């Protein structure tokens, strides 16, 4: 593997959700540990599944991987990190400050901003704190899907610039006395990230146009902060062993066309190609096989039909959504499972049935335009763009809160609004507007990958609690959270793949939503090989491994739709419409 040659101390694996970053990162850590190195594998994904891959509990503490000397792992859990961060600030003040003042500090540290900063605080320590992590020869980062990763890697510079100004509100970072420490730590983190002798960026992709376009976008954005040492890994390429049935031929042609058109910016980077394996990448033996190439095998005749999955058309869900005449449909799940495809297919189907539909996304790495590949009558398409949302939010605050301030007060307020903390608040405001809009017509939301979406919902819950506290029982009110909790107004659709890790993560997401009083309306299993009824042994082995996961989904869900793996990528109105081409309703 080119990306493993002369590996530096820090390796960052990033890319579009669902491309196999966790598998590649885990296999890399395993390989490096096998050479006698001391390795720490770190997940910065709020929806981490490193523990699931190794079959053991890891969490927010450094944990030895069973059976692998020299390999330890850490999952930076946002909530645990936030709690520990709050305690580091509040703990020393107990018994010193009045209870009322302590309560005020706790309140100021209760938002999603603190959650982000706490995770980020641990992340920068890994890069800059040799006293705690100096024993490791390599630290391998399995990062969140692209949009969240770019945000995380840009933060050292953002906070360094913010603190350097010295005039902003540092409340979310803790007491003023800690600012100098933050400046030093963040500066060291920036130095580590931008030094190719210490840090290597590995862009993981599938042989798909959208996935390859995403790594180009990532590479360009991270180049702007000085990360220029890039390598490309194309994962899950269909091997010759998959046979010559029509589905396999079509998939190979699609992959070859995507690789031939790899974006110019990343085409010159060192490239490794990894074959698709017949089973899931769970457990040490499976991970050890990831970097190997299967020996050529003689062509085999088509096998006897294997047990497949029963039909469960997406059209049946659209029929039921349409009966309400309006409302909100939220497609949620792990990155890379096809939320954008499902959201676009549902929106197009409703628009073609004569409804006004607004299709939007909260994903920083959105691909709605590429997926639709053109306009659709009756369909309005938008994106909740963080940069635009931040500009609008800052202008709104200056026009309202700052309206009656003097010049000095407005200057201080403007400086406060330059804090990276404003991002989540700004995006939440636009999200709330979209939720309100669903009272008049259909709104379909393609959400960001799971971890980012949960942070957005946390902001929604915080807003609800604040409104309830202020209003009390004096008058009626409806918050965005209350609309999300009402099944008559909102239908949450969990999108997954028929694989172990995506189903486990979707199940965890369902549990998180249930705790927030939101009950998922349906599940959609996307890109199912079992639903495509393959004929060759390799693809049948992949299909057989799906059946247990499909069965689990039926036990978890009130409604299920099953979308087969298609020979052609579902891009453009006609191909997306084919996903809902037939209805479960009688003619």
Description:
The chain has 587 residues and is of the alpha/beta class. The chain has two domains: 8-288, P-loop containing nucleotide triphosphate hydrolases (Rossmann fold, 3-Layer(aba) Sandwich); 314-391 and 434-578, P-loop containing nucleotide triphosphate hydrolases (Rossmann fold), CATH 3.40.50.300. Helix content is 47%, strand content 14%. It has 23 helices and 15 strands. The strands form two sheets. Strands 3-4-2-5-1-6-7-8 form an eight-stranded mixed beta sheet, sandwiched between helices. Strand 10 (357-361), helix 15 and strand 11 (379-381) form a beta-alpha-beta unit. The protein is globular and about 70 Å long. The N and C termini lie far apart (56 Å). 46% of the residues are buried. Residues 145-150, 167-179, 297-306, 470-477 and 583-587 have low confidence and may be disordered.
Draw up the topology in text.
Elements: E1 10-14, H1 21-34, E2 39-43, H2 50-54, E3 63-64, E4 71-75, H3 78-90, H4 99-108, H5 112-128, H6 130-133, E5 138-142, H7 146-165, H8 179-193, E6 199-206, H9 209-223, E7 230-237, H10 246-260, H11 264-267, E8 271-275, H12 284-288, H13 314-322, E9 327-332, H14 339-352, E10 357-361, H15 368-372, E11 379-381, H16 386-400, H17 407-416, H18 422-437, E12 442-446, H19 450-471, H20 480-485, E13 490-497, H21 500-515, E14 522-528, H22 537-556, E15 560-564, H23 573-578
Parallel strand pairs: 1-5, 1-6, 2-4, 2-5, 6-7, 7-8, 9-12, 9-13, 10-11, 10-12, 13-14, 14-15
Antiparallel strand pairs: 3-4
């Amino acid at each position: 593997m080119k990306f493993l040659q002369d590996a530096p101390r820090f390796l960052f694996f990033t890319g579009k959700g669902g491309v196999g970053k966790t598998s590649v990162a885990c296999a890399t850590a395993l390989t490096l540990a096998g050479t006698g190195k001391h390795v720490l594998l770190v997940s910065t994904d709020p929806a981490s599944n490193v523990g699931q891959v190794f079959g053991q509990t890891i969490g927010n503490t450094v944990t030895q991987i069973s059976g692998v000397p020299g390999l330890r792992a850490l999952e930076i859990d946002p909530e645990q990190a936030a709690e520990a961060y709050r305690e580091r600030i509040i703990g020393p003040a107990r018994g010193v400050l009045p209870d009322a003042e302590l309560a005020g500090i706790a309140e100021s540290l209760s938002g999603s901003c603190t959650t982000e900063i706490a995770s980020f605080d641990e992340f920068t320590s890994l890069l800059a704190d040799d006293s705690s992590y100096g024993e490791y020869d390599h630290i391998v980062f399995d990062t969140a899907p692209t949009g969240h990763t770019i945000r995380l890697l840009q933060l050292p510079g953002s906070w360094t610039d913010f603190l350097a100004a010295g005039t902003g509100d540092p409340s979310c970072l803790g007491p003023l006395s800690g600012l100098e420490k933050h400046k030093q730590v963040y500066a060291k983190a920036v130095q580590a990230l931008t030094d190719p002798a210490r840090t290597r960026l590995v862009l993981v992709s599938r042989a798909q146009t959208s996935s390859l376009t995403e790594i180009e976008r990532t590479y360009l954005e991270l180049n702007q902060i000085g990360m220029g040492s890039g390598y490309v890994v194309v994962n899950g390429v269909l091997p010759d062993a998959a046979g010559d049935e029509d589905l396999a031929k079509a998939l190979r042609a699609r992959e070859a066309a995507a690789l031939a058109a790899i974006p110019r910016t990343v085409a010159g980077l060192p490239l490794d190609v990894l074959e698709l394996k017949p089973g899931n990448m769970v457990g040490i033996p499976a991970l050890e096989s990831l970097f190997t190439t299967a020996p050529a095998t003689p062509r085999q005749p088509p096998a006897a039909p294997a047990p497949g999955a029963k039909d469960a058309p997406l059209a049946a869900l659209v029929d039921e959504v349409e009966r309400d005449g309006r409302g909100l449909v939220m497609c949620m799940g792990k990155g890379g499972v096809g939320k954008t495809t499902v959201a676009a297919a549902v929106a197009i189907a409703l628009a073609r049935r004569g409804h006004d539909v607004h299709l939007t996304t909260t994903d920083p790495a959105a691909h709605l335009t590429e997926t639709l590949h053109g306009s659709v009558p009756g369909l309005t398409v938008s994106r909740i763009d963080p940069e635009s949302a931040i500009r609008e939010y800052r202008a709104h605050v200056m026009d309202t809160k700052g309206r009656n301030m003097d010049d000095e007060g407005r200057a201080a307020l403007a400086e406060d609004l330059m804090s990276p903390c404003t991002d989540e608040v700004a995006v939440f405001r636009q999200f709330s507007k979209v939720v309100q809009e669903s009272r008049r017509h259909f709104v379909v939301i393609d959400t960001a990958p799971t971890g980012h979406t949960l942070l957005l919902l946390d902001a929604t819950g915080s807003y609800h609690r604040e409104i309830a506290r202020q209003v009390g029982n004096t008058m009626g009110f409806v918050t965005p959270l209350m609309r999300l909790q009402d099944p008559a107004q909102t239908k949450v659709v969990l999108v997954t793949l028929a694989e172990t890790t995506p189903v486990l993560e979707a199940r965890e997401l369902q549990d998180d939503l249930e705790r927030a009083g939101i009950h998922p309306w349906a599940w959609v299993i996307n890109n199912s090989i079992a639903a495509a009824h393959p004929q060759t042994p390799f693809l049948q082995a992949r299909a057989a491994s799906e059946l247990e996961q499909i069965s689990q989904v039926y036990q978890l869900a009130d409604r299920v739709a099953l979308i087969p793996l298609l020979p052609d990528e579902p891009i453009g109105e006609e191909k997306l419409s084919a996903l809902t081409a037939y209805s479960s309703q009688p003619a």
